[in-house]
């Protein structure tokens, strides 16, 4: 026996839409009423899993929704992702629709396939009045989604302080993490929701933050929200709280500090706040100074150097001493002098073990794909694409050293440069006593003190002498020179 042919009211389009579904989608109230009176099924879903009632909610058509419900539309019908019409009404802030669903028998706390309830969706979007109604009808303020995200965390994400306060008043706990370890305070800081953050700070336990392995300071810095960062600093959060290893492993550079996030964003305001609050600039495997040098950001570089950034950093991610910081400054005299003024080990660049001997010739230039080695300065600066810079770079570096010997490889390249006669004169003549005294004082101070401007202020020396010791005459950035391209 062949299957009976569907009635004309049950026939569908290629998307599974019945005539009633099309009438609802087109907001044709009179047509929808006629179809319902003619026996069209008000609960027939399309191939996407949406019902006519859910579509009416999406279109904010109250009259259409009322009509459908009066003709038997199921307010608790599960649509795509197990959503109900109440889910969508709460998410979109459609207050009249929410009231209509509830008065028509809608369950106040259904869970979608992701574990979200209408209350969670209303919290996520800051619809506090709808939240109040749902809570009065018995919605659970302590519910969690499939990833353990609490409704309070969703409210923190939305940023409405009234929503956060409402949930806390109904017993919500600010110390319940989601699976990733994040707490509501982390989300508020990351999104820059200052008012919500103010409410969450006093109700969040430090033990819960420590357990999460990440500080809200990190989140505010990563999100680029200096006003939230300032609030957290004033509240006593530690600017040197380091990411836990389980969090760090998700970053290729294994970053640890909040300062690293701020520097990576080029966020000067946040960097200033963190450094002023005592953030240490040398804690990350990839040094914060290295990031600033890559960017070529003079102000960032200057800030970090004035707060003790190590110009002779050793990168634990790519463990080569050289080219290190110097590699980013070979084409820029302003940046080069910044490093040299703050104690870069210039002498080491000229300590070539080959000396006057003929150095071995490699088949190719640069680094091999299989061997990582601590490359010498002379090997880098004599590369074919850098040779034209060698004279200018070496001439600047000679301002920061005593007598040095140039190895045969570097000398052969320098002799072809226009500055060779000047370089050769410096190399073959005694340095001034004044210059030698400066180098001696700097050596006695040590590199740690050279990186600490506060230390110099305590030395019982005339200001002119202090300026001379710090190579202030070569501080092009402080002199207002903001482009140092050769």
Topology:
Elements: H1 19-25, H2 29-37, H3 52-58, H4 62-70, H5 85-92, H6 95-103, H7 118-124, H8 128-136, H9 151-158, H10 161-169, H11 184-191, H12 194-200, H13 206-212, H14 216-223, H15 226-234, H16 245-248, H17 258-264, H18 268-276, H19 288-295, H20 298-306, H21 333-341, H22 346-349, H23 377-381, H24 387-397, H25 408-414, H26 420-427, H27 433-445, H28 447-450, H29 453-458, H30 463-469
Helix pairs in contact: 1-2, 1-3, 2-4, 3-4, 3-5, 5-6, 5-7, 7-8, 7-9, 9-10, 9-11, 10-12, 11-12, 11-14, 14-15, 14-17, 15-18, 17-18, 17-19, 18-20, 19-20, 20-21
GO cellular component, one term: cytoplasm
Pathway: Protein modification; protein ubiquitination
GO biological process, one term: protein ubiquitination
Describe this structure in words.
With 486 residues, this protein is mostly helical. The chain has a domain at 312-361 and 371-485. The chain is 48% helix and 0% strand. It is built from 30 helices and no strands. It has helices at residues 19-25, 29-37, 52-58, 62-70, 85-92, 95-103, 118-124, 128-136, 151-158, 161-169, 184-191, 194-200, 206-212, 216-223, 226-234, 245-248, 258-264, 268-276, 288-295, 298-306, 333-341, 346-349, 377-381, 387-397, 408-414, 420-427, 433-445, 447-450, 453-458, 463-469. The longest helix is centred in the C-terminal third of the chain and has 13 residues, at 433-445. It is elongated and about 105 Å long. It starts with 18 loop residues before the first helix and ends in a 17-residue tail after the last helix. Keywords: ANK repeat, Repeat. Pfam families: Ank, Ank_2, SOCS_box. This is Ankyrin repeat and SOCS box containing 14.
